[in-house]
Amino acid sequence: MKLGQLVHGDDYSPFEAMSAIELMQPKMDVGLHQTPDVKTVMAEIGELSDDDAKYIADGMIAMVYLYFNGNTTLQTVWSCLLCHDLGSVHHEGLKYFLNLALRCSWLARDIMLESEVVADEDAPLALLGAALDQKKLPAVADCLGGRIAAFEALEKILESVQTSKGEGCTMATVSEVLDALQMAGRDAVLAEDEDRRKQLDRLFDA
């Protein structure tokens, strides 16, 4: 690269450029920060314990709410390395939770698109390469007591809206989905060991 040149993806726009300038974060410039390999990082971190899984779930909840508050996928839910390759997650409870978090983010975006009242500057409608579509996510075992059912119900409602066969989703339905996400991660706690927390924080460095 030469001075004044910029490496960017096909969907990179002035909006993302301004976000990178405002954040002043090197990770927003792909020329300075390369996404780490998931399997390599996981090999260095080692097997995830239940406490590790809870710590990562806690961080992912924060990313989901940051996404809801108008930040981009790259700054929030897609910053979690494990979401780039859910197949590399061997902790079934964590894999289940991350699957729900991505589906919840996709549904939130779907709701905004269907409402037709949201502008690009108000909400992060561009996926920017994030694979949030629930149809592309790997199947997971419903190991935490039927939480996926709430998501599937809302997905069916949105599909009926798109085919003009339904009235749309209500706030009650959306609340049920958010409750399901919170219940799935309600046991999230900090890992006790500080060095271990620093290791796990690398998983949010995509």
Shape, per Cα inertia axes? globular
The helix count comes to: 8
Structural class: mainly alpha
User: pLDDT under 50 segments (min length 5)?
Assistant: 186-191
- Following the backbone from N to C, one meets helices and strands in this order, namely HHHHHHHH
Radius of gyration over all CA atoms, rounded: 18 Å
Distance between the termini: 22 Å
Q: How many beta strands in the DSSP annotation?
A: 0
Kindly give the count of domains: 1
Strand-residue proportion: under 5%
Helix fraction, binned, reads: 40-55%
Average residue-wise pLDDT: 69
**Main sheet makeup:** none
Protein name: N-alpha-acetyltransferase 35 NatC auxiliary subunit
Keywords: Transferase
GO molecular function: transferase activity
Pfam family, one: Mak10
Question: What report would you give on this structure?
Answer:
- The structure is a single chain.
- The chain contains eight helices and no strands.
- It has 206 residues and is mainly alpha-helical.
- It has one domain.
- Helix 3 runs parallel beside helix 5 and helix 6 runs antiparallel to helix 7.
- It is globular, with a radius of gyration of 18 Å.
- The chain starts with 13 loop residues before the first helix and ends in a 5-residue tail after the last helix.
Which key phrases capture this entry?
206 residues; mainly alpha; globular
Give a quick rundown of the structure:
By secondary structure, the protein is an all-alpha fold.
